[in-house]
Amino acid sequence: MDRRHFLALPAAALAAPAVARAETRPQVTVAVQNISTSNTLEMAREQSNVGTRIFRNFVEPLVDTDWVGDMSLRPGLATAWRRIDDHVVEFDLREGVTFHNGDPFTAEEVAFTFSNHRLWGGEGVREVPPAVA
After folding, report:
1. Domains identified in the chain, total number
2. Interval 82-99 mean pLDDT
């Protein structure tokens, strides 16, 4: 078919093959849960995986993840950890770690990080729910 005859065809004749192809495609429905974030740089209050991906630029966790391997847990600021019971984990902390201002990293800083005062704004304001094993 030459160009002149092709251009003379009605528009419906040109569109028909496209419509036929569209009807043979499978229909796919994608569901996404309600996404919300806390709009904060506070890792404990972040409600998405943003904390895991972004905060790694300026925070080193007690227990890290092998992101390029098998996603297993690996030492971070803690060199070892043991679950004592359903609510208690004991950590061995890496020695020689200091904060940006030169203060030493100690168990007291770790305990404060997970305290009611820091997480919820004061003692007794809200009880921290027990950890899920």
Report:
1. 1
2. 93
Q: Indicate whether 19 belongs to any domain.
A: no
Give the whole-angstrom CA distance, residue 97 versus residue 104: 6
Instruction: Give every CB contact of residue 90 below 8 A, 6+ residues apart in sequence.
Output: 81, 82, 84
Could you tell me the pTM of the whole model? 0.56
- Give residue 46's identity as a one-letter amino acid code: E
pLDDT tens per residue across span 6-53? 666 665 555 555 555 556 778 888 776 655 556 666 666 666 666 666
- Structural domain includes residue 50: no
Provide the H-helix boundaries in the chain.
3-8, 11-24, 50-54, 107-113, 116-120
Per the CB < 8 A criterion, the answer to whether 98 and 105 are in contact is yes
